[in-house]
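ERR on first pass: missing label on line 2. Operator R.T. fixed the label and resubmitted. Corrected input:
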Amino acid sequence: GDSVTQMEGPVTLSEEAFLTINCTYTATGYPSLFWYVQYPGEGLQLLLKATKADDKGSNKGFEATYRKETTSFHLEKGSVQVSDSAVYFCALSLIQGAQKLVFGQGTRLTINP
Amino acid sequence: DADVTQTPRNRITKTGKRIMLECSQTKGHDRMYWYRQDPGLGLRLIYYSFDVKDINKGEISDGYSVSRQAQAKFSLSLESAIPNQTALYFCATSDPRWSEQFFGPGTRLTVL
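pass 2 clean. output:
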């Protein structure tokens, strides 16, 4: 079945460090790919998305590129801030049918000043 | 006002009690979803609904039931709560033209 595997956390970085959170997927069709972020005590918010191969999603300084050949959608940010501390979820959804989201296990990120 | 709201935000109950979690949305979306979040497991789909007359089981529906009272309202029930249903529960909505989903703030449920 469809699945998403994320880099295990927790991840702790210093402010202004470079961030990469790895995400790979397995899907039978042609999925859309997402990164959601969950700040402490809040629900999930869409951070960025990509709907087809080679698309790059970007938002708030974060980027991820849909790589069909490596079935990956790694999240990157060049210089993290304390306010980026949150849990990050990679997810996929097949365009056809129920459009159910399949989530990775989440990666907790802590940024120290 | 929030587009997707959930009530209650926190609930502590005892084993065997019946519990209802409610979700309301003002986004006008037809599709609604209930997920459960457990540490280290991400979110898992419990039930989803495409409209008032269309209810479907997700991957972990055992022990849960749902009711779609209106386009804007989707409730999740635990008929007889058990401790391993202690989790964070999220409601979400989507527009079938787009694959992204919009989440409520979550309900933290503790079953003692």
